[in-house]
Design goal:
single chain; 170 residues; alpha+beta; HIT family, subunit A; globular
């Protein structure tokens, strides 16, 4: 595909909505998919799966999770990686992350929750992936490369997470 930077943004949104392009196409064109997503009403991901958001970051269920309860946390402002981030924003995100890991263990009965941050490339946007591991699964790095699968809604667990998060972060 030709670079998308020459396309009007409305056309890019249409192409995403019609599944002609995805975040990889944006990256190949030098467009940050996270920033584009935020600027265009969550056209790529997170739209109906947001667990928590504030002025500094967003947390939502991964739409193609590696495990049940897999969530993504990303900064609203574009930071290439943690070293670029304002210290206060980093503190806030990691404080939230610590609580979110505890909640995933409680609500999803995860034995452990892996914290992964892979931020490299020209249009990298700081994000954290929280990937639960359950008692019947192998330990170790295998969990970062488990096959992705479509998100399966569990309204009871989602509701409980929303209640607990609103209690702790309102």
């Amino acid at each position: 595909m030709k670079t998308l930077k020459n396309y009007p943004e409305k056309e890019i949104v249409r192409l995403i909505q019609e599944h002609w392009i995805d975040e990889d196409d944006l990256v190949e064109s030098g467009i940050c998919p996270v920033c584009f997503n935020q600027e265009h009403n969550n056209v790529l991901y997170g739209k109906d799966m947001i667990l928590y958001e504030d002025d500094d970051f967003v947390c939502f269920f991964e739409d193609e999770p590696r495990a049940e309860g897999h969530v993504v946390i990303y900064s609203r402002k574009h930071y290439s990686d943690l070293s670029d981030m304002d210290f206060s924003v980093g503190q806030k995100i990691f404080s939230f992350t610590q609580k979110m890991i505890s909640l995933l263990k409680e609500v999803y009965h995860a034995e452990s929750v892996y914290l992964c941050s892979i931020n490299d490339g020209e249009v990298s946007h700081f994000q954290l992936q929280l990937i639960p591991r359950y008692h019947n699964e192998k330990t170790g790095t295998y969990n970062f490369i488990k096959h992705r699968r479509p998100y399966v809604e569990d309204s009871e667990k989602e509701k409980k997470l929303h209640i607990l998060l609103s209690r702790d972060f309102s």
